Amino acid sequence: MKKKFVDSNISAEVLAAFLDGNATARESLEIFEALSEDAALRELMHISQSVDSELGIMPQEIDHLPMTALAATFSEECHCCLECEKYILRRRGMNFDEEQLVQNAIRNGWLKKGGTALHNVGRHLEYAGLIVGRRYKTSLSDIEEALLRGDDVIVAVDGGELLNNRLNEIKEDLFVGEIPDHTVVVLGVDRKGQTITLYDPNTPDAKDVYSLEQFMDAWNDSKNYLVTINTKEMKTYNPKPIDLSDIVLDGDLTELREAIAENAHEIWAVDRQAEGWTYGPKRDENKKETPCMLPYSQLPEKEKEYDRKMAMNTLRLVRKVGYDLVKREDTDLYRELLARIRAAKEELYCPYCSKEHDKTPIFRGYVYCNACGHKLNIDWTKYQDD
Questions:
Q1: What's the angle, vertex CA 41, arms to CA 345 and CA 51, rounded to 5?
Q2: Are strands 152-157 and 115-117 parallel, antiparallel or unpaired?
């Protein structure tokens, strides 16, 4: 039986998805509406935000990528990502078995209960032999260039904003704002007319025309996630890794970096030995000899730096997509923080919903008011303890 909060029908599973940024638009709206009536829900939200603040993982510190956000439609009978990929297979004249697609998606973990994670958009097309590219932080020009190349284009959007439904009536600074929960296929861009034509599985029409302004508002919520699809005839490859320059790691991760780097070298060496490679003073493809077939400690610094860079970028990527690194022995600190938060004094009142005789308290580290949902934009460093 799923645990639910006393004064609302919000389940613990839905709240966890909301806090992780994986809730659907409908679930986020339900949570937002429940906050004003459910004291237990407000308390848990207080604790979550304050603990994040104490741990130094405030949402505004990192421009997180919604890689694990679920691209799902509002209809349980229709999964938008799967429908977009089926649409592209049909456009390219490629035969497929619909039931087999669903089974492949479930078996490989691409299709979950709430939809498809953004990093899995296009997996069916890969399986069919097409070339799929995935990028964040793209632009309308990138879409136009892809269409000119003959690529098919899938983008992730906030379905509520695109459909101009109830979500569009809520101010942009609310916690429920950025919800990349839907995918569409881009068919054309008209700069002169300021419109864009889409195949949207959520509507009955074969083509839907939206204003560029409305589309961009919805697309921005996925950090402008773009999936391009082409055939094996593509000759050029222009790698564009995720920008991790805004991720600063703690100094005590040096040991973890070295452990990852050394283990990566060990894995590489085991694989090469299985292929028949041995040590040699210089790399020789014919003899299968390489000077890197040595223990990590004996490698030249140049080779170690390659492994270290890989390790550090892996750790940065973990943070970039919304995960945090916590040592097992530090879990007692988490409980201590919860106790401190519950005993914290009131610092301010919400400037948006507080009235003369009905003030809504906000506590140290809050990012959003849990009563009205407004983003507070308070510099909490001014309220640090002496």
A1: 50
A2: unpaired
Give CA angle at 62 (56, 66), nearest 5°. Answer: 120
Q: Which domain holds residue 202?
A: 70-230
pTM for this predicted structure: 0.63
How far is Cα 201 from Cα 115, in angstroms, rounded to an integer? Answer: 13
Residues 215 and 282 in one domain: no
Q: Within a domain: residue 236?
A: no
- Read off the pLDDT of residues 314-335 as tens digits, 9 standing for 90 and up: 888 887 777 767 665 555 555 5
CA distance linking residue 85 with residue 127, whole number of Å: 11
The span from the CA of 191 to the CA of 159, in Å, is 22
Which tokens go with 253? 């991760």
Structure tokens at 286: 């014919």
Q: What is the pLDDT of residues 139-163, one digit of tens each?
A: 999 999 999 988 999 999 888 777 7
Helix (H) or strand (E) holding 186: strand 182-190
Nearest CA-CA partner of 278 in 265, 291, 266: 291
Is 30 within a domain?
Answer: yes
* Domain co-membership, 339 together with 309: no
- Amino acid found at 261: A
In angstroms, the Cα distances linking 95 to 23, 86, 100, 105, 128 are 33, 10, 12, 17, 9
